[in-house]
Every structure is written in C-alpha cells, then in structure tokens.
Known about the structure:
alpha+beta, three-stranded antiparallel β-sheet, 2 domains, 3 strands
Amino acid sequence: MSLIDDIKADRDRRILPGQWRVLEGTRNLQIFSERHWIAIIKCESCPAFEESTARRIARVPDLEAALLAAGELAEMLDNASSPWVWGSGQDIDWRHKRDAALAAFRRAIGEAG
Length: 113
C-alpha cells in the first residue's frame, strides 16, 4: 500500500475525526480531537520546543488532507496527458474534477479556493 492508501484507510475508519488542537495544561500540552485525547507532552514551563512539537502533531489531519488533495491533482494531471481527454467532450468533466481537487487542496492548506 502507498502512503495515500494508508491515509485513506485510516480516515475511512473515522478514528479520531475532526480537527486536532493543542490545549495548555498546568504542566503539559495536550493534543485533543473533539472527544479524544491524542497525546500529552509533559513539560515544566513548556518551552518553544515542546510547543512546536505539539503544534506539529496537531497538524496531522490538515497535512493528510493536503496530501490527499495533492494526490487528486496529480491524478488529474496524469489524465490530462491522455489523448482521449482533449477535444472528446470528456475535457469538461476533467476540468470540473481538476477544479474540485484544486479547491480541496487550497482549503487544506488554508488558502481561499
């Protein structure tokens, strides 16, 4: 299986759905997803290293979404080089799929689509 296949399989299982966020505890940083704790990073004063690590962990769902959208864009570009697409009437359907994949990628990386 590819990395994209693994991500799709995990997301299909709906394990830890939703956005992940970092919550500051008394002596720790907690990564939380809607109703589930994902990780707790223990630290006395939570220096920049721990805060950065917690934020990186919390970005995993967004990074997965961006990678999946990039995979869709790559597939669209692969199909664009096929001779049957252009001028056959299928190019309009391809453009709609391309636009949807590009919009999903832009949303995943936080840009307006």
